[in-house]
Amino acid sequence: MVKPPVIVTRAEPGASETVARVREQGLSPILSPMLTLRPLNAVAPDLGGIYNLVFTSANGVRYFVDAVGGITEQVADVSAWCVGPATTAAAEDAGFQKIIAGDGNADDLARLILSSEDQVDGFLHVANDAAAGNLVATLKAAGRNARFLPLYETVPAQAFSEEASDALRSGEEAIVLIHSAKAATAFVDLAMGLASEAWTMIAISEAAAAPLKPLGASRIIAADRPNEDALVAALCEASKGL
């Protein structure tokens, strides 16, 4: 029995990694990123008084390393707090020496930071421009010196890829992977009006699943944990019944 195609909506550079993992499961991926990453014209990061970098995505790590010109001696001595496995792997690959690995979302990471007694104050949350919010506010409310640095933005796609459009318009079963709430919103904007009753939507978190509800898809599934491993596990489980 032929399994339905799996539409990968993740932005590059991570999208290619997800496509490879889908293929490893014996499934057929179709790439159609819902977001494009674009660097902001920001000045070089001011690291004065900063002893902790907070990363809530692997892309934040990549853009920060590019912005500072690599892991300098000053940066190597800074603690890197990472939201989950993919972000931790990116920090390790970049050459950070002091990495504290989380396994949840931004709220979980804030709680991890506040629960740690062995730390020096001074936190910089590096992310995309839409991510400013609860994490820094939570740290500030607890008396920490924290600020936010947006180094890139995410731009919604204007159309599906041709192959994804054909699959979604066919009326046949399809699986769609969603990696963020913003990607979910972009997908819904493009998909409204299409027959979605045969689609299985698999989101990386409850927050990413929430914007999908207006679609009327047959199934909306949220991964058990907000990371790539849990998303792939949810995909494997969901595909068994298709």
Features:
single chain; 242 residues; alpha/beta; six-stranded mixed beta sheet; five-stranded parallel beta sheet; 10 helices; 11 strands; 37% helix; elongated
Q: What does the model show?
A:
With 242 residues, this protein is an alpha/beta fold. It is 37% helix and 22% strand. The chain has helices at residues 14-24, 58-68, 73-76, 85-94, 106-115, 134-141, 162-169, 181-191, 206-209, 228-239, and strands at 6-8, 29-31, 35-39, 52-55, 79-82, 98-101, 123-128, 146-156, 174-178, 199-203, 219-222. Strands 3-8-7-4-5-6 form a six-stranded mixed sheet. Strands 2-1-9-10-11 form a five-stranded parallel sheet, with helices on both faces. Helix 1 links the parallel strand 1 and strand 2. The model has no long low-confidence stretch (mean pLDDT 93).
Topology:
Elements: E1 6-8, H1 14-24, E2 29-31, E3 35-39, E4 52-55, H2 58-68, H3 73-76, E5 79-82, H4 85-94, E6 98-101, H5 106-115, E7 123-128, H6 134-141, E8 146-156, H7 162-169, E9 174-178, H8 181-191, E10 199-203, H9 206-209, E11 219-222, H10 228-239
Parallel strand pairs: 1-2, 1-9, 4-5, 4-7, 5-6, 7-8, 9-10, 10-11
Antiparallel strand pairs: 3-8
What distance separates the N and C termini?
9 Å
Main sheet strand line-up = 3-8-7-4-5-6
Q: What best-fitting shape do the alpha-carbon axes yield?
A: elongated
What does the largest sheet look like? 6 strands, mixed
Average the pLDDT over all residues and give the rounded result: 93
Portion in helices:
25-40%
Structural class: alpha/beta
